[in-house]
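Good morning,

Attaching, inline, the backbone tokens for the sequence recovery test we're adding to the shared suite. The designed sequence is right after.
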């Protein structure tokens, strides 16, 4: 696992993320991007992904087919207050065949400088749980498909995050045309 505080040093990018009213759409709106090598970073979310993975590449040489990404907004007055324990996987393939195929790497980034209570990322490994505070401009990289993880209840304020999974093959929902290509 890698945790990097004050990850984005480009103030213009931070400001554009903060001012983009479309950045945080509905929770669970999963999107797919086939990467800068196939199509341009034509949204601020794709610019963020490119900033993380093209220009600051901690992938250690993995061959990536694309990025699955979604935003999460959690709070006591929001539809979601927490996120239960789970493994990231190709959901469509799992529902169809029961086969568990996981992303190569998972990423969580916190782009909003707002106060809130709770909302920790908890990652289970070897019977132990590591609890990581969600804080502004923090990037967390971990093997999302191999470790169960969850978000604890947000008890005050609003927690904003974007999750990005790196896949070495296209997801079944993308192949079937059932996933949003932003």
């Amino acid at each position: 696992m890698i945790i990097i505080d004050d990850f984005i040093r480009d103030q213009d990018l931070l400001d554009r993320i903060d001012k983009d009213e479309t950045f945080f759409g509905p929770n669970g709106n999963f999107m797919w991007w086939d990467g800068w090598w196939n199509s341009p970073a034509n949204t601020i979310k794709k610019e963020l992904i490119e900033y993380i993975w093209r220009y600051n590449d901690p992938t250690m040489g993995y061959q990536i087919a694309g990025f699955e990404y979604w935003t999460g907004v959690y709070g006591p007055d929001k539809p979601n207050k927490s996120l239960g324990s789970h493994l990231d996987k190709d959901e469509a393939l799992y529902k169809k065949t029961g086969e568990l195929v996981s992303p190569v790497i998972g990423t969580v980034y916190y782009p909003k400088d707002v106060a809130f209570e709770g909302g920790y990322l908890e990652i289970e490994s070897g019977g132990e749980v590591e609890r990581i505070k969600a804080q502004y401009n923090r990037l967390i990289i971990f093997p999302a498909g191999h470790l169960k993880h969850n978000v604890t209840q947000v008890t005050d304020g609003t927690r904003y995050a974007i999750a990005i999974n790196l896949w070495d093959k296209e997801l079944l929902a993308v192949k079937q045309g059932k996933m949003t290509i932003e």
